[in-house]
Automatic annotation (TrEMBL):
GO terms for biological process: transmembrane transport. It is found in: Cell membrane. This is Carbohydrate ABC transporter permease. It comes from the Bacteria.
Amino acid sequence: MRFPPHAPARRRLEGVAVHLLALLLALVILTPVVWLLISSVSSTADLTSLPLRWWPGTPDLSRYAALLSVAPGSPGAAFLLALRNSLLVALGATGLSLLVAIPAAYSFSRLPGRRAGLLYAVLATYMLPPVALVLPLYAVLARAGLLNSVYGLALVYCTILAPFATWLLKTNFDAVPLEIEESAQIDGLSRWGVLGRVTLPLALPGLSTAAVWAVLLAWDEFFYALLFTSTTSAKTLPVAIADFAAGRAVDYGLICAAGVVAALPPILIGFLLQRGLLSGLSAGAVKG
């Protein structure tokens, strides 16, 4: 950190304070992650000893090997099946939600009319506590034969993701100049053509932001997954990891290793799309 020689003392103090607060924030965020990584390679004796050993004597990577095992009945088989289910549910729910949210957001943005109240009604469904929707959703899934199914769970997640994606995309569509769309219509494009060939490419940061947030929300969701799935064939990662703590002899290192592996796909997606994520959030922050 460098300041010009002529910088006033107050400016120097403000700069130091900002950097100290940023360092404190980084410590608060990263400390649990670092402890998760250390615990995942610590032996059971290190994790249960008193006083607690903050650093393992010998790193133990056997938990990661166990999670990649496909032997029937092993923790790895359940974990890998749950990983597949989480991918199916998160990507399926995100795709379905964007298919609904894109035309809905475009309609709210370009053809508001009396639909403004409907947008707030859509947002109100997002604000409802999940427990309020459990009984209706359970009844619908039971009637459709989709209980204990990854497809049923993906449909349930659409009720969470579609309102959020609609709101986020609308704010980004609002930022696209109307003159560009009108020029495209004069050149002969239909309304759907304008949406697909003009508006969506210009709102691509917002679209990637909505996709990333939808995947993360579906990936981490636990409440509905716990209630609507009961067998290994349908459980997602949060429920499968919680099951590791259900036995009499709990392997805390295995739970931590599963947490580390489960966090890798969202981190990778966020890293690859970080530029679009920041642009989309900035656009959404300045538009009402």
